[in-house]
Amino acid sequence: MDHHLKDETTNPNPADTEGQSNVHDLHGRTPKRSPGAHRYRTAYEQVFDRSRSLDQGELVAVNIDIPNAVVLVVGIAPAVRALRGKLAQLPEFELENVDLLETYAQALGHAHAQMTIVPARIGTSALKQEALALRDILLADAAALEARRLISTKALKEVREECRSRLAFGLLNLATLLRTAWPKIAGRPTIAQAELNQVETLVDRLMCQPDEQESVRADASARSEQRQRNFTLLVRAYEQVRRGVAYFHWSHGEVDCIVPSLYRGRVVRSRTSRASRAAKAKPETQAEGARAASQEAPSKASS
Fold first, then answer.
1. For residue 108, what are the contacts with CB-CB under 8 A and spacing of at least 6?
2. Which residues contact 69 (CB under 8 A, 6 or more apart)?
C-alpha cells in the first residue's frame, strides 16, 4: 500500500500531472484529459487500468440499481473516512479500500452513464454522408411527385421506412420506384437519370461496407463489460469496509447505519416475500388439517 497507493491517491486529478497519462479507452487509445475534467470521469480514468486488470472470472454480476448504489456510497464515504484510524488497526486490512471507495463509486457512475447513453457515430464515412444527402434530396423530389399522384403513396411510405432502417436497400428501392414511374415523370426538372445512376453506384459501394449496426452492438457490449468491471471494484472494496466496520460496531448494531448493504433493498423484498408466502400458506395448512381430522372422525366412530 504504500508507494503505489500514494501515487494513486495523492494526485486525485491525473490531468494535473503533465506527460504521465497511462490510461486508455476500451480500444487501447489514450484519452485526452482536460484540466477541468468532471470528477466522475477523472475517477474513471484514475482506476481504469485497475479495472482492466481483473480476470473475466472475477467479475461480479450487476444485479442492483447502479445509480442508487453510487449515491449511497458517495453519501457514506465521509463517515467511512472518519473510521480510517480504527480500520488501520485491523491486521491485513487494506486501507486502499477506504481511500478509493468514493473513487470507485464515481468511476462506476461514469461507466454506467457511458453504457446507458446512445453512442454517437463519430466519423461517419464520406460515402455514407453522400448517400444520406442524395437520399434526402430524392425523397423530397418523390414527395412532390406523390402530391401530383405520379407515384404510389403506399410504395413511397414503404421506401421511406426502408431508408430509415437499411440505407443501402432503401436507396435501391427508391431508385427502382422512380425508374418504374419514369414514363410519367420523364422531362420534369426535379429528377435526372444521372441521379438514379448515381444512387445505384452508391448502393453497390455501400453493400461492401462493414455492418455498422454490428459495430454499434460490439461497442455496447464493451461498455457493458466495463461497467461490470467498475462495479466489481466497488463491491469488493465496499464489502471489505463493511467487514472492518462490523468488527468495531457489530455489538452496537450500528454497521447498517454506517455502511448499509448495497443489496439491502433486494434482501428486504426477499424477506417480505417469504413472510407473505408463509402467512398465506398457514391458513391453508390449518384448513387442510381440519378437513383431515373431520374425515378421520367418522371412520373412528364406525370402528
1. 66, 69, 70, 227, 230, 231, 233, 234
2. 105, 108, 234, 262
Q: Which pLDDT tens digit goes with each residue over 249-287?
A: 776 567 888 899 998 765 444 444 455 555 554 555 555
Task: Kindly state the cell numbers that stand for 67.
Answer: 445509480
Cell of 14: 491525473
Q: Cβ contacts of residue 265 below 8 Å, gap of 6+?
A: 64, 65, 68
Which residues touch 51 (CB under 8 Å, ≥6 apart)?
107, 226, 229, 230, 232, 233
Q: What is the DSSP string of 47-64?
A: THHHHHTS-GGGPPP--S
Helix (H, G, I), strand (E, B) or coil at 21: coil
pLDDT at 9: 39
Residue type, 83: L
pTM recorded for the entire structure: 0.52
Please state, in angstroms and rounded to a whole number, the distance separating the CA atoms of residues 150 and 143.
10
| C-alpha grid cell, residue 158 | 414503404
